[in-house]
Design a protein that fits this description.
The chain is an alpha+beta fold. 32% of the residues lie in helices and 20% in strands. A hairpin with a 2-residue loop joins strand 4 and strand 5. The radius of gyration is 25 Å and the shape is globular.
Amino acid sequence: MITVRKASRLLAVATAIFSFLPPARADGPYTPQQTMTVFYEALRNIINPNLPSNMWLSLSMVGAVAEADDPSIVNDLANFCPEPSPLITSFARVRHLDSIYLSILKDLTGPLRPETPEYVAAKDFLFKNGALTPEFTSYQKLGQDYAAAFSAYLQETDPNKRSLLLQKATAAEQNWMLAGYRGEVDGALFAIEAGETRFGPVKLGQRNRVLQWYKSSGRAPSDVAGAYLAPASDLSPAVSAWNNDTGWVSVSYSSHDVEAHLSQSNSRNNAFGGLSLGFVTLAGSGGGGNGNVSKVSQVNDFAYSFEVKRVLIRRPWLDTEVFFEPRDWTWKKSGNTTDFPHVSGGVDADGVPSKPTSTTYDNAQIDCPMLPLELIIARKRSLVATVSKSDYQQITTGGSSGGGGSLFGIFGGGGSRSWSTTTVNETSNDVTFKVDSPSIAVIGLISEVVPKLPDPNLGDTWPDKAWLEPQQ
């Protein structure tokens, strides 16, 4: 599981060079790269300017795709595998963390270990002649009954019905304890776990059962039947408490900070240089379009102010040992896969996450180079900027279009997240305008870099089905 210790080790690192950027000037104009660099460094300084090198800060360039008024989308975002980039240019939900995790559980194999007498006895209690014993069958049946009863309790919103459903769930748990051989089966599973490697078949089965349980408990009453469902994750603070006044930190900066922040970012080699940015970006609904269209390429002056809060992601359904013990497992040989795939390529010589060369195993996408640990949420978002009259028209057009348009990274977003502007001053050439957004939105992620995975240890003894090809 994700530990508090891991969640506190935060850092953003990236590569590339700003040599292509025009020199920053106190009087503008500023490119999107310069403006987003200031945005990134200002927020990073608030979070922690000396974050450890195995952590990564990613900020949204496609607006507010997840807001506090839609907890289901927020839960979906907690199941998102971002690209190794300082800016998130798409939230297309094609790389679900739980799907990658399930592919790993289904297709990995661990090294061989000798079987102890306790291990053999425990397996005999659970399995006979290739089938489940009556005790284990009863354990699973009554355990499923309890899971269903508890899931119904979690989903109910009416207080009176919740009380009744809690009683039913408590009774189902008692039945499981008394008639489901829960103590005996749990003891046998513990003995098997103690006798197996980290990735033995019983442990894999336990991980899979926990995942399926949280997938079922993640469904909300309003969810469409048959729609993709992310497993339920815990957020701290919970979405319902995001608006509490505790924990918020003010952020404010302007174009006058450009030179200092560019110098600071250059010293860290942050990778904005390879990104094609624009102040107005149009994307598909939910930030999941096939591409981005930059509408405005420069701004003469700008000033941001907003408040941020960090939200810890806890995934009780995810055993992070699978992602952070790369030497203890490998893929099974697969006739449908010719090139050895990696979940993560680790980091390069500069400490930057490396996207693997091969990312498909048995026709499934399995790459996840970074594991998000925290959401960065913002409220009281405000911006004052000066642009040319023609660019201002592009901005107001983008804002009225909705459907995934974003402005300066943190305004707009998917669905109906359009924005509106207020003219502050107008000259013959320029327009100074203001944008305010009172809602609470996710504007970024803090992730831990996943090491090269898998990277099986040749010193172990592996079964014949183990794929060890990448070792030199």
